[in-house]
């Protein structure tokens, strides 16, 4: 057996610790970043940290952002948005859910009717009720109730105490304030002496679950970005109110004033301070560039609503910016952008493409959903459109979608088949 020694060349890639740190900072929320920078400034003599103006406005120059976040209750809006992000995969439903969230009163009840919310969102009542049913399953139970009775019924149902008598009493609870116990007993089909026992079952329920949350008018963490509509289109900028500032103090000590170990430690701390400053600058640059692409690609969505979303994925944005899709995912995760009407999550700007017939131009899923909903909503109830007819109408409108796609989206929207819609119209 003969042994031979050869040389070969191989190329490998390894992510440096500094790059990993930079990516970690990119993915941090404003709260996490402030906590991280506070810790770094405490341990590194070459760093000075200044809290964002939004934090200082809440507590003066010496405001401790980390302590304030720990001391304050979470806001009701932040609490429900976190649950909305997990509960709704589709952009259309998520944006409708955000409309409901914007209508919440401090009590946790809706401050607007479901009809007005559906009208503002451009959806039918069936879809609005479906989304509301999911929202009313959020924690704590009772959020998104239409009124006091709705709130108590939701909680009684969860507590498994919603008997016929309990529900009747809750729905007629104003009679108690009017001291009309005899009328209430008649409605509940019981004796007046039974009313206190029924009331006892609901006394532990919370009529205003939203009051458990912070309702400060100025949030501790406003959106990271701001989009403004001008004469020449949309422009995007970082929200300086949420942007922390660090200053690197250069080493002004002579090397001869300390021993070799101390000099090495000082150089290491200074290098870490400079790397942190660069990572913070890259974070802002990546956020701004990502948001600029999203707003430019989805300007019609901002102007006209979800029906005008075009297909856009993480990979599309990453390709345009010359970055990896995972970097874009970190940049948009949990980020909000303030527009002239409301704040939106950056995730709302993405939409999957629908497979089209005959290799036609791709359209976003939200556009196809909106078309199906509007078409069925505007049909003659006595002569409802079949799925094939909807496909034909879509093709005339420049939207080439398959019949199975129409059937799938009709089901997603809670719309019955043309046969069932015809039967329902005849029954009316």
TrEMBL record:
It comes from the Bacteria. Signal peptide: none annotated. Belongs to the sigma-54 factor family. Sigma factors are initiation factors that promote the attachment of RNA polymerase to specific initiation sites and are then released. It holds the Pfam family Sigma54_AID. Residues 265-423 form the RNA polymerase sigma factor 54 DNA-binding domain. One of its GO terms (molecular function) is DNA-binding transcription activator activity. This is RNA polymerase sigma-54 factor. Residues 68-250 form the RNA polymerase sigma factor 54 core-binding domain. The keyword Nucleotidyltransferase applies. GO terms for cellular component: DNA-directed RNA polymerase complex. GO terms for biological process: DNA-templated transcription initiation. Keywords: DNA-binding, DNA-directed RNA polymerase, Nucleotidyltransferase, Sigma factor, Transcription, Transcription regulation, Transferase. Gene3D superfamilies: Homeodomain-like, RNA polymerase sigma-54 factor, core-binding domain. NCBIfam families: rpoN_sigma.
